[in-house]
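Action item from last week, closing it out:
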Amino acid sequence: MKKGLAALTLFAMLLAASAVFAGKLIINSDTSDPAPKAAFQGIVEDFKKAHPDIDAQLNIYDHESYKTSIRNWLSTQAPDVAFWYSGERMKTFVERGLVEPIGHIWDANNLHDKMASTRSGVTFSGKQYGLPYTYYQWGVYYRKDIFEKHGLAVPTTWEEYLAVCKTLKENGVAPIAIGTKFLWTAAGWFDYLNLRINGLDFHMQLMAGEIPYTDQRIKDVFAKWQQLVEPGYYLDNHTSYSWQEAQPFLYQGKAAMYLIGNFITPMFPDEVKAHMGFFQFPKINPDVDFYEDAPTDILLIPAKAKNKKDAATFLSFISRPENIRKLNDTLDQLPTHKDAGVKDNYYLNIGNEMLSKAGGTAQFYDRDTKPEMAKIGMKGFQEFMVKPDRLEKILERIEKGRKRIYKK
């Protein structure tokens, strides 16, 4: 009798233990910067409180190592939830069968309506493969006090922008902060010049491999870019700096402007926050509408995930408007859920209005074109910014890559 009671007691204890930790949920993220790290550590803790039976483990990696590692994870030891990007970057994994379709999460949470604006970036062959949780504007963040000191107004045209750069350079201030050690920052300049000169349809055709990089319209883009490179308007030795390492030049007043995404704003030091401003990348071709980069970040469930059930629970939890809002309030970015509302913030208010009036949006160069094409293109962009006299050879090399990657 005692043995039977002991067995029942042990069984009850094991059952209770299994109820406490019914599943282990592995979440891999690239949210290593302070604001994203805090945002997701907080939301995971909220999730644990709401679901004490799920042992959620958040693993945080730096951006560049994450981009390399995720390809291996998805093919071998996949986490249950992974952070990634909308558009071509996601499509590449979908085409390889590495991502689980999550249309059931969209259906259950009415996301087809609530996240309609970002749905297309995660939909392939009629199925949804990701949960967008944030997007943000790109534009020029600048030092208002430096502009005021030198009598400069916010430029709205290319000619005005060049004049601002000239004045800053003449007064010992680097007009444009940038770090191109990791190549994607240079791609932001290519995106905006191409969008402002040739428009969104042309840009997306180029991203799809349908237009040669030796096309005269692409050469026109580099001709404008040359007007910044040749006079030395970019930060000296920018190939030595990451985008984070280039920021102190802006904060110390040694540089005046930075073309970047809104993810930079939580990093503004307290002593310079009041001096920072934002303006839309200026008009170049008067016949081309304002098109913007608005990258969207997502969560996905790998096809080889071991705990897809709890992963779906986590994505459903994140998709609630109050949680999307809480995340983006910390990130200082824009919620993807239309019921979440937008934090009352100078940059978010401008960004929200700017994107709502845009003629259309792109994701970003390395999110809109195939990864191998992006690598070749961005390497060429960085090289051009250092050795502009090599332009013809650079374009020929990029074009050779396009023909190989997009061969019909």
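Closing note: Residues 2-134+296-353 form a domain with the D-Maltodextrin-Binding Protein; domain 2 fold (CATH 3.40.190.10).
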